[in-house]
């Protein structure tokens, strides 16, 4: 045997093996070099599926960042989890949180204002849909505190087939008294089990009763011009309205408020003629194969205002969590920039019912999408401009706690356990106490 040839062959094999191992190590290092960012959310099943598709597309589009999702039952549960993980390494980088309506909405200790992140990692060519004078997810200087991805407005959904069966023009009246007459007809002609339902008692009967009727919700310019401790002055309009709602429940024109997706599921299944809820359910209803529905604005009182105003923009947003590395912040910004791409943001708007993220997303959404959705295009366009003073938003100290208390009071009233006057007086008094804590 030729020993020199054997030696050369053995040496070549060793060199090849070393080179292969080096390449494998480099590949393994490259694979592990991707920056993971944890994103926590509490989206409804339909919207969560749309979001997951966006995340999968982002992860496929590049190798530098990997988004890992974690789902919670509610934004309240999610926020508590962040608070408990604030000093741990497994806290999220981005989280879906409600706009808490606090005097300084970005005062949560664990969040980084979005404008601070974008100062270092700007999103190119993005003009935000909501104007700087709208208080939703913005500070007193009009700067964005969070990525307004889940901004929504309350709307009135209606089942076109139910209206036709009842012999009505397939469109609800915008006045509360006119709607009441239609509900009587609907109840007597096929919709007895559920003429009207809602899962938003505080939004419909307090917050946006003010905004849609162009009335202040609280004093001090809805709390935007004070220290966040304004007074709730529930006047005769509120008393009259809540008294009518109590009578609707008693006469079975409206079912008691239903939650945990009960109301939305019943409407999606065609059981209810009218639903007062948020626009973020619109995508789910469009996906319901046998549901023919329309969208219009909330009812109003012509005795109070000649033309209805716009409701408050509300909902949740993607908040950047503070205390992350520079690499993680850069990765988070790249993910948000991906979501802000006009085509992707337009798809999000169309498939969920959340308001457009940017002006570019609105322009990317063609008229075909709005064709069979009645007033939805008009309602969206109305929020692209500067908001009226009564619809800009509001700031109230400890408002999430106050809203829970309002919810409890309204539930008692709609169950017939206390009159409207008592409910509203108690709600106003208790709100004052909670603000001072």
Task: Write a concise keyword list for the protein shown above.
alpha/beta; six-stranded mixed sheet; 437 residues; 46% helix; four-stranded mixed sheet; 18 helices; 12% strand
Explain what the structure shows.
- Helices cover 46% and strands 12% of the residues.
- By secondary structure, it is of the alpha/beta class.
- Strands 1, 2, 3, 4, 5 and 10 form a 6-stranded mixed β-sheet that branches. A 4-stranded mixed β-sheet has the order 7-8-6-9.
- Strand 1 (35-41), helix 2 (45-61) and strand 2 form a beta-alpha-beta unit.
- Helix 2 (45-61) packs antiparallel against helix 13 (342-352).
- It is globular.
- Mean pLDDT is 91; it is low at 1-31.
Per-chain topology:
Elements: H1 3-32, E1 35-41, H2 45-61, E2 65-71, H3 75-85, E3 94-98, E4 111-112, H4 114-120, E5 147-152, E6 154-159, H5 160-165, H6 176-188, E7 196-198, H7 201-212, H8 219-222, H9 236-250, H10 262-268, E8 274-278, H11 282-287, E9 293-296, E10 314-321, H12 326-340, H13 342-352, H14 359-364, H15 367-370, H16 376-382, H17 399-414, H18 420-435
Parallel strand pairs: 1-2, 1-3, 7-8
Antiparallel strand pairs: 3-10, 4-10, 5-10, 6-8, 6-9
Helix pairs in contact: 2-13, 17-18
């Amino acid at each position: 045997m030729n020993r020199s040839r054997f030696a050369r062959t053995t040496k070549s094999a060793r060199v090849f093996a070393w080179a292969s191992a080096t390449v494998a190590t480099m590949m393994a290092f490259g694979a592990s070099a991707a920056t993971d960012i944890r994103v926590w959310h509490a989206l409804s099943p339909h919207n969560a599926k749309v979001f997951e598709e966006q995340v999968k597309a982002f992860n496929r589009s590049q190798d530098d960042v990997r988004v890992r999702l974690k789902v919670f039952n509610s934004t309240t549960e999610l926020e508590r989890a962040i608070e408990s993980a604030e000093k741990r390494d497994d806290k999220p980088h981005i989280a879906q949180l409600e706009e808490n309506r606090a005097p300084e909405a970005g005062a949560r200790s664990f969040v980084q204002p979005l404008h601070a992140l974008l100062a270092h990692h700007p999103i190119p060519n993005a003009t935000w849909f909501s104007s700087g004078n709208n208080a939703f997810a913005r500070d007193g200087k009009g700067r964005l505190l969070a990525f307004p991805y889940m901004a929504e407005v309350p709307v009135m959904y209606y089942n076109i087939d139910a209206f036709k069966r009842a012999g009505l023009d397939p469109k609800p009246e915008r006045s509360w008294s006119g709607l009441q007459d239609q509900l009587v007809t609907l109840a007597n002609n096929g919709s007895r089990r559920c003429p009207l339902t809602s899962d938003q008692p505080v939004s419909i009967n307090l917050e946006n009763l003010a905004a849609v009727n162009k009335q202040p919700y609280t004093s001090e310019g809805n709390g935007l011009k004070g220290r966040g401790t304004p007074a709730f002055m529930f006047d005769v309009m509120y008393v009259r309205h809540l008294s009518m709602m109590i009578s609707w429940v008693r006469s079975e024109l409206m079912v008691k408020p239903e939650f945990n997706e009960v109301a939305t599921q019943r409407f999606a299944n065609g059981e209810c003629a009218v639903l007062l809820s948020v626009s973020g359910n619109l995508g789910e209803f469009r996906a319901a194969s046998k549901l023919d529905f329309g969208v219009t604005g909330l009812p109003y009182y012509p005795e109070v205002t000649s033309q209805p105003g716009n409701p408050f923009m509300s909902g949740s947003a993607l908040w950047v969590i503070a205390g992350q590395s520079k690499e993680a912040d850069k990765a988070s910004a790249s993910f948000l920039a991906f979501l802000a791409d006009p085509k992707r943001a337009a798809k999000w708007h169309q498939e969920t019912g959340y308001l457009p993220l940017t002006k570019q997303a609105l322009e990317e959404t063609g008229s075909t999408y709005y064709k069979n959705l009645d007033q939805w295009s008009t309602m969206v366009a109305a929020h692209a401009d500067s908001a009226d003073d009564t619809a800009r938003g509001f700031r109230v100290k400890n408002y999430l706690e106050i809203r829970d208390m309002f919810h409890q009071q309204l539930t008692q009233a709609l169950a017939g356990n206390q009159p409207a006057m008592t409910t509203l007086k108690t709600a106003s008094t208790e709100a004052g106490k909670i603000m001072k804590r």
